[in-house]
Structures are given as structure tokens and as C-alpha cells.
Amino acid sequence: MPNEEGAELYLSDLSERDKPWDARRARAEQVQALYSGTEYDRYSTRILECSRVLEFALAAQDDGEMRFRLMGARFCRVRHCPVCQWRRTLMWVARALQGMPKIQEDYPKARWVFLTLTVKNVPLLELRTTVKDMNKAFDRLSRRKEWKPVLGWARSLEVTRSRDGEAHPHFHVLMMVRPSYFTREYVKQKDWRELWKSCLRVDYLPVVNVKTVKPKANADGSESGITAAIRETFKYAVKPEDLTADQVWLIELTDQMQNARSVNIGGVLRKYWKAHEPEDLVNADEDGGGEVSEDDPRLWFGWREYVKRYAKVN
Length: 314
Ligand SMILES: [Zn+2]
What we know:
CATH topology of the largest domain: Replication Protein E1, Chain: A
Largest sheet: 5 strands, antiparallel
Bound molecules: zinc ion
Strand content: 15-25%
Distance between the termini: 19 Å
CATH class of the largest domain: Alpha Beta
Radius of gyration: 21 Å
């Protein structure tokens, strides 16, 4: 892009890592518009003010590379705000990845399994009670003998929207298991299904997916299995595009999901990953970053509605 006199400098052109900001903030604008004038008008007001200005430091990282580090922003913390939901995800992922070296040191033999537990689609109006039933069912599951090899787990609730507007709630569960899970305590996919069915106390066989997380780093330098599984686990509660598909759906979803927990941590992982929702939405650097000094240059970017991008503020 030619940098003519007076032309704006955009964050997404200057920092590869910060490219997602524009799309998230643009989506937040849509959610804000959908809340406007409804019973959740107050959320609309809060989202309007969310992350309008971002303050970055340009600082050298541990690897010597200069990178943008977010130093400050005002977040609205509305549950379904696409910016805040994304930041929360990043915080969970950063927390989990930062905890990994210590976990691997304390449990060198542990292995990881990724489990997806679903129920059949339900009318959106039944989402709240369905999630309550799923929580109870998970509780039962965690007391079954098949659960014995599970040392710790992280569970997130995701709700997707079906084409006809029904809700599809499901759990993503990342489990840290004893090595014996893969020998004498092995649970086959088919048995996980039966087990989940029995815990749910339903008369149909729910879809359950189980996959082993590959422990080793990939030879091609791409992400290791555990890193990818951590990202998958903490992905998001509701797909950004589902949030803006239909106003009535969003309002009802907001109603139904009041007070439902998105993330739960159990077993020994509570010690490493903490169960509480992240409060700080600013410092989401996975590697912990590097030190930022007073002398590092600061840059401010403001949200430009007319181009849907963050531009440098002088
Ligand atoms: Zn927000």
C-alpha cells in the first residue's frame, strides 16, 4: 500500500499477528446493532465503547524480534461481544500453554485425549435446561469407573446454530490420562457413546467423538497435537457468524445462556490452569512475551467505522 502523505496507517498492515482485530471489531459492531433497541440495549451501549482504542508497545521479544504488544484497551466484557469472546479464548489458550511445561514435568507419562460430547439439536428455548442436563450428565460421567484414568480435564461448552435455527450444544473435553488408559483401561469410541447415553439418561445414541492427541511435536514444525487440541478446546462459545445470523436468535441465546459456564477445569489441571474466568483481557501472549520497557515506543490505534479497520492515531 503506498504510504502517501496523509494516508492512514492500518494496524493490520503493520502487524501480522494483529490482523484478526479488524474482523472481530466489525463483527462486534453487528452484534451491537442487533442488541440495540431490544431488552439488551444496555449491552449495545457497552459493545459500542468496546476496544475503540488500542494501545501497543513495539518491543523486542525474547527471540529478538520486534513485535506489537497490546498494553491497554477498554473491553466491554459482554458475554457475546465478538471481541471480548475472542480475547477470553486467547487468555485461556495462553494460560493453558504456559502451564504445559510444569504439567509435563510433574506428569511426564501422562497422555492426552480429546473428547466431544454432543446431544441432539434442541429448540433454542430449551437450551438452558439442556445445558443443565448436560452438566449433570458430565458429573455422572466423571464418577464412572471408565473415568478413573482421567487425571485432569478442561471442558468448554459450545453452542452452534443449525440451519433451521435450533441449538446444538456440545462439550469439548480435553483429558489428561494415565498411560494405562491406552492399555487395560481403554474405552472405545462405541463405549464412550453408550456411557454418555447412559449418563444423559436419554433414549437415543448421542454422537460422541474421541481422538488421541499426538504427543510429539510435528517434524514439519507445525503445531504439536497438544497445542492444537488446547486451541480446539478453548475455541469460542458461539461461532461469530452464528451470533449475527438472526436477531431473534441472538436475543434468545443471550437469555438462555445467562449464567451458563463456558469453561470448566477439573482434577489436577485446576492447579495449573485455574478454573476462574480470565479477568485480564489485555495480556494474551502465549509465550509470556518478553519484557516491555518504558523506553519502548507506544502506538495507538483507533477503530475506523467507515473502513472497518484500526488506524494509527497521532
Ligand atoms: Zn467487548
